[in-house]
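Example 3.
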Amino acid sequence: MGLLVIRNLIVSVSAPAAFVALWLCHTPTATAQSTPSEPAHVTIEAYADQQSIGPGDTFRVALVERIQPGWHTYWINPGDAGQATRLRWSVPGGYRVDDVQWPVPHVFRSGTLVTYGYEGEVALVQTVHAPGSLASAPANLSVEAQWLACQDICIPEHGVAQVTLRQEATAAHAAPAASTALFTAAGARLPKPSPWGASLAVGPTHVVLTVRGIAPHLPSAAQVQFLPLSWGEIDNDARQKMARSGDDLLLTLARGDLRSSTLAKLDGLLVLGRGSGQLQGQGFLLHALASGTDAPRTR
Amino acid sequence: MISIHRSRNAWLVRICAVLLSVSGLAGTAQRAMAVAGPTIGSAAPDFVGIDSNGKSIALKDLRGHIVILEWSNNQCPFVGKHYRSGNMQALQKEATKQGIVWLTVLSSAPGQQGNVTAAEANELTRSRGAAPTAVILDPSGTIGHAYGARTTPHMFIIDKSGTLVYMGGMDDKPTTDVADIATAKNYVRLALTAVTAGTPVQDPVTRPYGCSVKYQ
């Protein structure tokens, strides 16, 4: 069926060539290629925040997506459509890789559909724990990435990238400046733990998310948006009504497709938008447990 | 005691404020914050559609039949997964053999991906070996919006009394990989089995996954 637009991007990197290149450069590098006739809408590259690893080190790796203008990839909760980027790191025995640290996403609106993701460039950072004793050979950490690139239309793409790091008996060496800058920038885009507590009152069609003590930190014109971490809890398209009660901020959110089910908790990002002063653009991780004050259910 | 009363009062004020905000939604705010899409256990939104053979199909004329709605866009890779594998066609055949009415709905607007003519729709049915009861052309998105259809595919099941009993994804593996179908939990098949047997659907609402519906 010629109309199916499935583009399997073949990643063909000859292993010996890659190793020679890595050995010559001695810097974290990566390879992600696609066949010339099927240009990827996203190119990827892998980085590490150390140039070499010492026993028991905790360091970070990043998969950077460089996304063609007009296209985007997705957050852990893609929203109404789409698919989050999936990363699978292959690491030497004894190494452990933590979960992806997802940066605060952009909100994309198309009619009534709302999706969450990234445009331009995004770094998906993960913490790596090295074992207590290391082999002398360089450690090769490779990542297999699958992402959905969407503009008006969506194309599934994938690629492989890797970093090769020296393993040393003693201290680790810092990464080159460019890599350090990349991790610093990536860190700035991560959501922070919320310094404000939150609670949830659940009604049949709406919930009220109370963020305690935040109001004095927000100018009155601040725009605030809650982005749910999971599907179905919140209607992504519905207007989020904001009110203040003393020092608290009350966000009224329409429930999503799972509105007929019990909602015991709500996790997500509180993103402070326009008019938020110094906090503008920052995202805070909220974890709100439903209080025992459920509004009467209608059904 | 006084301090306890004070804190309890403060607590009560807080709870009341929250409750008022929730109940207050019943008034003016409700219109601006209308709940999108249909609700499980309620009457499925009525519609009249024109199929790829020019025939008019009204949901209310289908009472007494189980009806399944499948939102589709033949160029969406998630739809492609279920058609290249034969997964969708197999389920269509299983369903229609039992007298279930299977309606494939195309809500792509003119000029958008997946918008096809009636003849193209019929050719797609033929070339893919698909077996829906009918393919409804909904380029205005009217039916799509009534159901809050967001993705292709997005599946809805309506029981014989016209009640919506399932809405969501095809299965629990939100990928474009055909290989995932073998190990996926096919929510639609499970729901159809339950509805046919007259038992409750175990997972009546699941995450629809796929491309966005290409509305106007």
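Chain B touches chain A through 51 residues (CB under 8 Å). The beta strands of chain B are 48-51, 56-58, 67-71, 101-106, 134-137, 151-152, 155-158, 164-168, 211-212.
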